[in-house]
């Protein structure tokens, strides 16, 4: 009860600020709509889907278009810098920090982290490793058990990277833009990882160039991203978790990413469409659907706190549906070995060596 009251007080304190921003309209959060693909400049575009913010339930509607030439999927119109700041706020930091920390330290997350760390072993043991988009550094803390002699550094734009350094999950923290900081880090690292990071960036090619700068010759770049060619994406439609609107700006087909890596001075040495699968498709789709029909949660971007009857009804529905979500999660885990062998797998991994 005390935690509930503390959260309600924090939400109330933030409400006036959000209200002031929202009163100015949402149009300023978006760039002009593109008429050509940002990856190959083709004008053969079609709408892939429309979505709302399932994760935070902030207001707005977001569109993903797909290129008919190269298959690239991208947000169109794309969030501006001001829009990105607004929609990321209180998600990984601030109001949402505790929730994200619990998810990042869960048994499932640790299992995925260990698999990512082990995938590097056939290519050597890095002495110095930079994890880009590290969040609160939980991957690095787990990977250190697989690579006990590796020094892990983390880079992110949120304040979580600073707490990761304070709490010892990484040795050194860099807060800011990788494309800007990479000039300071030129030629330092044996490994640079981008786990579910590239899809969040406005300019993925610039991020690949930054990784090339930060790596030593012969160093390895490790990338995992959602697979927009996954059959799960088609079957689950806008409820598919990895669409993650409005945060995911670009979803790259595997062939496009491999081609871009070659253009930026890398040699692709490993590709994996099986192990990187995150076994939460059914659970996240059900949770997204449930959020869309539930009475409003008390959130600072809502105009007012929901009334007692609405809050009671929401709690009652959650109590009734929670067992079903648990069952779906168990099904996701049980089916994972089979799913990983099919095109239902929802992510892929690429390891590339700097030439």
UniProtKB/TrEMBL annotation:
GO terms for molecular function: methyltransferase activity. Gene3D superfamilies: Vaccinia Virus protein VP39. It is an enzyme of class 2 (transferase). It comes from Streptomyces bugieae. The keyword Transmembrane helix applies. Keywords: Membrane, Methyltransferase, Transferase, Transmembrane, Transmembrane helix. InterPro entries: SAM-dependent_MTases_sf. This is Class I SAM-dependent methyltransferase. The chain crosses the membrane at residues 317-339. Its EC number is 2.1.1.-. GO terms for biological process: methylation.
């Amino acid at each position: 009860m005390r935690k509930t009251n503390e959260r309600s007080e924090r939400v109330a304190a933030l409400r006036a600020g959000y209200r002031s921003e929202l009163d100015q309209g949402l149009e300023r959060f978006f760039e002009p709509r593109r008429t050509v693909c940002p990856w190959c400049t083709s004008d053969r575009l079609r709408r892939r889907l429309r979505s709302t913010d399932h994760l935070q339930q902030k207001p707005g509607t977001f569109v993903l278009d797909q290129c008919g030439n190269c298959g690239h999927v991208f947000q169109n119109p794309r969030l501006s810098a001001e829009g990105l700041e607004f929609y990321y706020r209180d998600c990984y930091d601030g109001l949402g920090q505790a929730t994200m920390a619990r998810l990042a330290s869960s048994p499932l997350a640790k299992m995925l982290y260990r698999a990512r760390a082990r995938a590097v072993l056939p290519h050597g043991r890095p002495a110095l490793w930079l994890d880009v988009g590290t969040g609160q550094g939980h991957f690095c803390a787990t990977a250190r058990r697989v690579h006990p002699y590796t020094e892990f550094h983390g880079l992110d734009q949120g304040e979580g990277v600073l707490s990761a350094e304070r709490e010892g999950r990484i040795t050194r923290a860099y807060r800011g833009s990788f494309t800007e900081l990479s000039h300071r880090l030129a030629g330092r690292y044996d490994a640079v990882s981008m786990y579910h990071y590239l899809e969040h960036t406005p300019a993925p090619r610039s991020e690949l160039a930054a990784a090339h700068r930060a790596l030593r010759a012969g160093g390895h770049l490790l990338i995992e991203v959602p697979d927009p060619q996954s059959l799960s994406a088609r079957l689950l439609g806008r409820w598919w978790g990895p669409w993650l609107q409005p945060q995911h700006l670009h979803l790259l087909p595997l062939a496009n990413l491999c081609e871009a890596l070659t253009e930026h001075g890398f040699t692709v040495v490993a590709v994996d469409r099986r192990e990187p699968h995150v076994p939460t498709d059914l659970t996240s789709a059900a949770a997204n659907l449930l959020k869309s029909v539930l009475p409003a949660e008390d959130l600072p971007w809502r105009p007012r706190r929901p009334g007692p009857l609405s809050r009671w009804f929401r709690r009652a529905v959650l109590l009734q549906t929670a067992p079903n979500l648990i069952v779906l999660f168990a099904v996701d885990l049980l089916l994972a070995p089979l799913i990983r062998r099919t095109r239902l797998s929802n992510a892929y991994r690429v390891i590339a060596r700097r030439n």
